[in-house]
Structure formats: C-alpha cells, structure tokens
Amino acid sequence: MLSHQSGIKDFTSAIDYRRVIDRSSYGKDEFIKEHCSADLLHDPGTMYSYCNAGYCILGRIIEQVTNKTYEQNLRARIFDLLHMYDSGFDHNRSVLNSRASGYTLGPFDIENADYIEMDSTPGAAGAIYSTVEDMFLWDRALYTDQMLSKQYRDLMFRPNNEVPEVKAAGGRSRSIYGYGWQIYSRTHPLTKQKTKVVNHGGAIYGFRAMESRPVEDDAFIVILCNQGDRVGSSDVWNAIVRLNTELIHVITGQPYRMPSEARLTQDQRLYRIVNSDGAEAAIAWFERNGKKAAWGGSLLQLSEKLLSDGRIEEGLRLMEYDIEVTPGKAWLLRKTAQVFLDNGRTDTALIYAKRGLEIRPDDERFEQLVAEANRILKGDTPDK
Fold it and tell me: Are residues 155 and 197 in the same domain?
C-alpha cells in the first residue's frame, strides 16, 4: 500500500465522490468497508497506481496496533518529537489561529473552495496542516535517526522499480516510487546536468502543495498554495510544478526562468468581449480564434456565467451557438432545453428537447422535458 501496488481502487475516482462521498461523515471502519474494499484492479505487487485508499487502511492499522488514534501517533511520533507545533491533523470543526482559507481558480473569478469532510476523506490520506517552517524541521529530521533509522530511510527513498506504472501515472516501464516518495533525476534542458530529487505533491480542495529534496545539495523546497483547480483544469497545479522545477535550477546553480504572468483563459477573454462589444462579437472572435471542446459545450461556462449575472439574452444566445457548433451532443441539448425552459423560452426548449429525442428516443429526461414544455404551452397547471 505504501508503494501504491495494492491494486485497491482509489475512492477519489468514484463517480459520486465529489459532493457526495467527500461531504459525508463515516466511521473509519465504515468508510473502509464501503469505499476501500471493492474488487482489485490488478494483482498486488504487479503495477504502480496511486491509491488514497491504501493510506486510509494503513492509518486504521496503526490505530489497531498502537491502541491510539492516528492523530495521537502523528503528534507523539512526529510533530512533538520535531517541535512542529504549527502542524496537526485537520478537523473541519477545529478553530486554528492564522488558518489559510482555501480557494479555487474558477473560470472567471477566484471562488471559495468546496467543502470536504476531513475526518472521513482524506483522513489518513492527507488531512494534515502545516507551515513552511515546520516542514523544514521535517526535512532536516529525514537526514537523521530521529524518526527512522538509516535502514528504513534508505528503504523509503529507494524506488520500487520492479513494476511498471499505469498510464495515468506516466506509463513508465519502471516505477519511480519508493514508500511515500517519488525518486527521480531532473535533467536541465540546457546544461544537461542531472539532479537527484526526492519529491511529493499534494492536492485537495482549495490547496496545492509540493515538496522536493535535492538531497545531494542538502536543500529543501516546499511550496504551499491556498488555491486549487476546478474540476477539469490543472492551471494551478501546472504553475506549482513549473515553480518547483525552476527552484531546483536555482538551488543547483543552473539557468532558470522567472514565472510568467498567467494568460487570460478563453472564457475570460470571451467574457471581456461580451462585456465590451456583445455576444455576437464574442462569437465572431471564437470562430476565428477559439478552441472547441471535443465533447461539446465550448461556451457553456461562459453562458452560465452570463445567466448568473442576469444577462439572459446573451447567455441564451451563446448556448444556442454551442448547439450550432456541436449539434449532435445529447447532454448539451438536454442542458440547453432545460435552461431555455427555466427562463421562460418554452417554444425553443421544446425544439431542443424533441431534437434530443431524435438522438436518444428512449431517454426519459428528454421525454420529461417535452411533457413539461407541452404542459406549459397548453396552460395546464400541475396536479396538487
């Protein structure tokens, strides 16, 4: 489990993880039984595939062996031992002085991060808070026998490279993961100098983190960011990775590049055009320069933003244009029909719902939309 070769399915990949599992409170054994106990994805010890469920199980094993909570073990064996007094196991209901709020980089604005029930998930898979200063104490201790003897530290920092990685992890033929750490060599693109790096990153709603230990240079890099990516985006994470890479170059005396300013996203650029010149101008720009989403809905987020701003006509116009660009997407037709229905454009909603039925004749949701639109057009009132 520490080398992520267990074959256990990661609960974060479940279709109902976001906004259902992640917001629910479970007992530890209940959570493991329900969300860490499905059929194995592969035989144990044959493949590297990152799995948060393994950490949850290991945390519970520690509790069973020591008759103490995982939090008590962390406090006694790491935090108090190393004088990491600004670190701990995070609870949603605990009030921490100077706690950083978590945010999400939305398509148009910075947003408050989604709620997550820390005790259940991530639990032992990552419910820890800390500071840069405390993490430096942690790094220094990893060069000594304070927490682990050299035997176990060497084991922890040695890649389990007898197995390949799944495609999502890079697809390498030999894993670069030890026990809780990635171990690899960073080659500078110009000088070709290689730097051995012991590294791990972390991501949770509203936060991104990265620590790297160029051990041969006796250096430590830690990046703690109280901003996360929205679903389907990786802009913040990519920025963290780039910053980490350039800091490695700085430490090793190699040429480095300063981070560039973030560019406007397509949605942000189109939103500005709508604000200055209207929806048709935004459509014209998109036709010349826009990047279409393969799954459809290229302008959906922009449309929803305009609708939430109360700019109904502009929002609906862009939704119609999305359908013109990708007319065969049933999910987009369903979404568009519902939005038009919600905004009193019943005739148009009926057209899109019927078009959806042509694509999926037995789709109950399209049938319901058609029935609702016909009921409204006939002036019928729903039964009480």
Answer: yes
